[in-house]
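Researcher: Next entry in the queue.
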Amino acid sequence: MKAGGKIVGNEVFAQRIKKLRMDRTLSLDGLAKELGINKSRISMWETNGTVPRDEILLKLSQFFGVSIDYLLGNEQMEGKEPDKGKLQYLQRGLEKLDESRLEKAEKMLSVMFDDIFEAEEDDDDGI
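Model: Structure for this entry, 127 residues:
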């Protein structure tokens, strides 16, 4: 983006990349190695808000487990990422079920998800 002839970076992107990196206690070198790029590029993202090309954005989103929209500041993440331990617990429980019980569990989850997502839509509508 340009503002008054000066290129303006994405501040939200800069803040989020740095926070995600720090949350994982990764150095600039560590993240650079994970992504196969030079650490100076990461420094540019964090200090100038320079947004990388699409394939690097995709690598970042996959590595940190967040959406590209989140990285760019188009959505909030707080409370959106489920606890991986809880998901693994549910998955292990489902893996133990025979076909008949798995179908029953699927039907129950389907009803619960429909109810949850319907309630969220009602909240969004102000109901």
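Model: The helical segments are 11-23, 28-35, 39-48, 54-64, 68-72, 84-95, 99-124.
Researcher: Noted, moving on.
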